[in-house]
Write a structure and sequence with these properties.
Blueprint lengths: L4 E10 L4 E10 L2 E6 L9 E4 L4 E4 L1 E6 L12 H8 L1 E7 L7 H9 L5 E7 L7 E2 L4 E2 L10 H10 L4 E8 L1 H4 L5 H13 L3 E5 L6 H7 L5 E2 L19 H8 L3 E2 L10 H9 L23 H10 L4 H6 L3 H7 L15 E14 L5 E15 L2 E4 L2
Parallel strand pairs: 1-4, 1-5, 6-7, 7-8, 8-11, 11-12, 12-13, 13-14
Antiparallel strand pairs: 1-2, 2-3, 5-15, 9-10, 15-16, 16-17
Helix pairs in contact: 3-5
Length: 379
């Protein structure tokens, strides 16, 4: 079968294959067809010289809000992914069982960018999140809809990857961990992982972790005090280490209020790297401090994580969290998605959610993407 597209001569960094080499990547029939030097092109093959760029598996942003027009926090997935090199955008609870059908029909299905979703256990998802209105959907337990959530998740297994719940003072008020317990029942019922948001107590970071199962995701994992995973002495809390030992996954979910350099420095100094790096992009943080996925990745690169580890946290590890091993890899037979990036050197000002600035010497920039084996947008 002739190749549809060959990316020629880029530096291919694919942690799933422990690959970091200058080589070619070819696509055919919507999948990765071959990786190797000097791949042969047919007259019908599109060949792109990418020798100036780094080629990675298609980036996965595990925490986004892309129900554009359906919720006030939603951004346009295609526009965002063009700028950020993301080929799989995972919406985390924008929609619940009461409005998921609209999200699927009007946003997910027409999108050229792959959109997967964690379904919120609250009936209408995250409905009261804007500059002027901020109502935690988990505050009102009458909005918890476990029966319908299980039905909708079961009926949409092709695009729903798990169950989402938000707990903390801002999202669940004084309900504490009760919404989390309800969401866990749904996750158990449908055999899916859970993603839990955490903000200020109640509940505590430890209370949330104690409930999570192997494969469940705690997002906003490197948040500032209160409910930080690090102690005042700069060590990692024992509950955090115990949770990782039993298989709980730790996701960044930067967003508007959920990532602090102080916390990240402490965690990285102890060798506690995030399992997944994600932006938590939405209308209130797309103009800062999160901006996009590659900016979030850049912050970790500037704090000492290797480029390979940063890419792994946005490709292979994210695919494993989604239980979609066909994503996040350039192994032949994998989904034909790839991201082209460059790493620019200079002086770059990065900001966290509490106003601390970090002047970094490198910045990851999106240079183009391949979706479904086809070049999707030019420089």
């Amino acid at each position: 079968m002739p190749f549809d597209l060959i990316l020629r001569g880029g530096r291919v960094v694919d942690p799933s294959q422990k690959l970091d080499a200058v080589t070619d990547v070819a696509f055919s029939g919507g999948k990765v067809a071959a990786v190797g030097a000097g791949l042969k092109a047919d007259p019908s093959t599109e060949v792109r010289d990418v020798s100036q760029f780094i080629v990675t598996p298609g980036l996965i942003d595990l925490h986004t809000h892309v129900y554009w027009g359906g919720t006030s926090l939603g951004i346009d997935a295609e526009e965002f992914c063009r700028a950020s090199g993301v080929t799989t955008s995972v919406d985390t609870g924008s929609a619940g069982p009461g409005n998921f059908a609209g999200f699927r029909k009007h946003v997910i299905e027409p999108s050229q960018v792959r959109i997967l979703a964690y379904l919120h256990v609250s009936h209408a998802g995250i409905f009261g999140f804007s500059h002027r209105i901020m109502v935690g959907e988990s505050e009102e337990l009458r909005l918890m809809n476990p029966i319908e959530a299980a039905k909708v998740a079961d009926a949409n297994r092709d695009v729903i990857v798990g169950i989402k719940v938000r707990v903390g003072l801002h999202s669940s008020g004084t309900s504490g961990a009760v919404p989390l317990d309800i969401a866990l029942q749904v996750a158990d019922e449908v055999g899916m992982p859970l993603m839990a948001h955490i903000d200020h107590p109640p509940p505590t970071y430890e209370e949330v972790l104690a409930r999570l199962r192997p494969g469940d995701v705690l997002t906003h994992a490197f948040r500032p005090f209160p409910n930080s995973p690090a102690t005042a002495q700069g060590t990692v809390k024992k509950a955090v280490l115990d949770a990782r030992e039993r298989g709980v996954l730790f996701d960044i979910g930067h967003g508007k209020g959920s990532f602090a350099f102080k916390t990240a420095r402490a965690m990285l100094a102890n060798g506690f790297y995030p399992d997944t790096i994600s932006s938590d992009i939405h209308q209130l943080c797309i103009d800062g401090p999160a901006f996009d996925q590659v900016t979030t990745m850049s912050k970790f690169l500037c704090m000492g994580m290797s480029l390979s580890d940063v890419i792994k946290a946005s490709t292979e590890n994210a695919a494993m969290a989604l239980r979609r091993p066909e994503l996040g890899s350039l192994k032949p037979g994998s989904v034909g998605d790839a991201t082209l990036i460059s790493v620019r050197e200079g002086q770059f000002d990065y900001e966290d959610v509490v106003g601390e600035h970090l002047i970094g010497d490198r910045k990851i920039v999106s240079e183009g993407v391949v979706i479904g084996g086809r070049w999707w947008h030019p420089n």
